[in-house]
Amino acid sequence: MVSKSKKPHFGHESMHTHSQSIEAAVVERSKATAAHILETKGHDVVSVRPKDSIHKVTEVMKEHGIGSVIVKDQNGHMVGILTERDIVRGFADEPDNTFDEIAEDLMTRDVVTATPETPLLVLLHSMSEGRFRHIPVLDGEHIAGLVSIGDVVKFRLRELEYEALKLKQMIVG
After folding, report:
1. Which domain of life is it from (predicted)?
2. Residue of 91, 118, 97, 101 lying closest to 48 (CA atoms)
3. Which of 10, 60, 114, 172 is 20 to 30 A from 50 (CA-CA)?
């Protein structure tokens, strides 16, 4: 005959374990927004004019170490965005003439934008689904900044590191 051992009974003091409270803390989703990302990254936006040559645009990108620029008209209003990917497509279509083309020839005109209140996870989803890596943040008519997929990932990684530290502190005490 096999005897079944009984687990010790410690009473009903707590129905939740320490690990359950940790799980509850981890489940809390990021409440970060585009504004939070811009607070850490900055609000600087590099722009070019619609009639600037692609050669000039690439020099501006190289000088600033960036992968996209906002295209603004003479009144400072955004009329498009021009990215490295747009320029590569231009070279694929017109290999000999791309540097002579102008920003408005290659820029994306129908720009997906965000607001400062746009949640980080919505930004990430929009960029992933739309297959683009940069999203201008508009505060009304004003361009508050430009967020890249790298900015979003870096911010989220910092959040996860902080969450891991807090969990470790909960466990260790």
Report:
1. Bacteria
2. 101
3. 114
Q: What is the DSSP string of 95-134?
A: TTTGGGSBHHHHSBSS---B-TT-BHHHHHHHHHHHT-SE
Six-digit token string for 54:
């692609």
> Token digits for 162?
């902080």
CA-based Rg of the chain, rounded to a whole angstrom?
24
pLDDT digits (tens, 9 = 90+) for 25-34: 433 456 889 9
Q: Where are the alpha helices (DSSP H) in 5-76?
A: 18-27, 34-41, 54-64
**Residue 76 near residue 26, CB atoms below 8 Å:** no
Closest CA to 152 of 137, 171, 166: 137
Q: Domains in the chain, start-ordered, CATH in brackets?
A: 32-172 (3.10.580.10)
